[in-house]
Design brief:
This protein is mainly alpha-helical. It contains 3 helices and no strands.
């Protein structure tokens, strides 16, 4: 597996695991992972991608009707 694919997979797994831990629905987790992976594609670090995905997960979990993604 290439380094780029490994970074994407790791960020996606971490975001998905956090979403599952908070009890999000699959489509909500998909949205958070998509936003996190997009950060990687834009040249951000893995930590920035995880933070972006985690921010979306937190918005879904704690403010489900105010998503500003």
């Amino acid at each position: 597996m290439s380094n780029e694919m490994e970074r994407r997979a790791r960020a996606a797994a971490q975001i998905a695991n956090y979403g599952l831990h908070l009890g999000l629905l699959p489509y909500q987790i998909d949205e958070a992972v998509r936003i996190g992976v997009r950060q990687l594609e834009n040249g951000k670090s893995g930590a920035r991608a995880y933070q972006a995905g985690r921010k979306v997960v937190d918005q879904f979990a704690y403010h489900p009707f105010r998503l500003q993604a």
